[in-house]
Amino acid sequence: MRTRDIIKTANTNLLRNKVRSALTILAIFVGSFTIILNTAISAGVNNFIDKQLSSIGGEGYLEMTQTEAMESMMSMLNASNVQEYTDDKDSRNNSFYIKPEQIEAGRKIDGVKSLEPLADASVDYVTGPKTSKRYRATFNLIVDGINLDMASGKAPEINSSEYQIALTDAYAKALGYENLDDVVGEKITIAVPSTLKCYTSENRKDCQTLLTVTVTGVQAPGILAISGPRTNLTLWNKIHEINVAGLPASSASEYYQAVAEVDPDKIDEIKEQLKELGLTAMSVEDEAGSIKSFLDVMVTVLNIFGGIALVAASIGIINTLLMSVQERTKEIGLMKALGMSRLKIFFSFSCEAIALGFWGSIFGTVVSMIIGTIINAVLHGEGMILESFPTFELVQFSPATVIPVILLIMFISFIAGTAPALKAARKDPIEALRYE
Q: How many domains does the chain have?
């Protein structure tokens, strides 16, 4: 009996008891549907994050803070670890400032091209000529090594003498610009507070300085571009200058953060050396990696449920084939009497197990692709969560993600069918022919 005939016969034998085979395939379908859909979601999110990283760049860009500051923040988030306040130096926030000697030592690390402390810069609100409303804002600085993905216009010129800013699409629309191209080149107003004056002023307006800023463009929507508008260095320094006006020189020169441009090939070594200096450094990839890690945990948990369904399906395969062996005992004896080898009988029943896994995973794939397409369409609808991210396909199927899952399920089915197949192969032909 040729291999092709054995495979064809195996599929035909599944139809001998349609209900039993259908129920087994259904159990496999549930597990395969869960795993394939989860894998597609993971692929969609990871692919979108990779595109964001590719568009932003920042391969050699690091942001750093005092390790003590990071540990203190994490400690405060942990309700079981409450720290007592004392008047000694180590308990005060100034221990969280990056020290000048750390900056100097960091600049000497091999592979560090530049390392500069990042001054704090805070604003009260932003407004524009098309609206009377004022909107709270948190600005970020654009630095060398970061390439903004722009939906309209261009990124601010870092060292331009003009005050420049790149808005997010949310801010552009809030300021009255539905067409993002219309806001490019427009002048908007920001209110910058003076820390010292605001402590003594009864009216907040008395301690604010209004600056006119040029909008150079609008950032494209993306999970790594939602932190807020980005300014050039000139505007950032001006905001900081207003914030610290009148404060002692020591306070004006205290920095919580620093940024560095480094050799991408040495980034891990540089992060370790910075850690030895007491600085915790993070790259753009690290920030995106935390999102991926969270997603991977969620997908793993859901895949566990899919795995449980496959275990149940495996028991169903064993039961289905054992019943099949029992019902076809005489047939097995006849095949052996006609010269069919143990190996081919084993292969025949193994093919039935593999066929059960194949059809269950195929149905799971087809249904998950239909459901995935519907999910993508719904989430990109008006007012839905992905409306602002037109390039984000949450559920993304590809042969590289689907085929390995199908092969894995077929392998699990083969393993589950091994015991019944061995039982069939070992049957004595004379006893099998006598079976009633």
A: 2
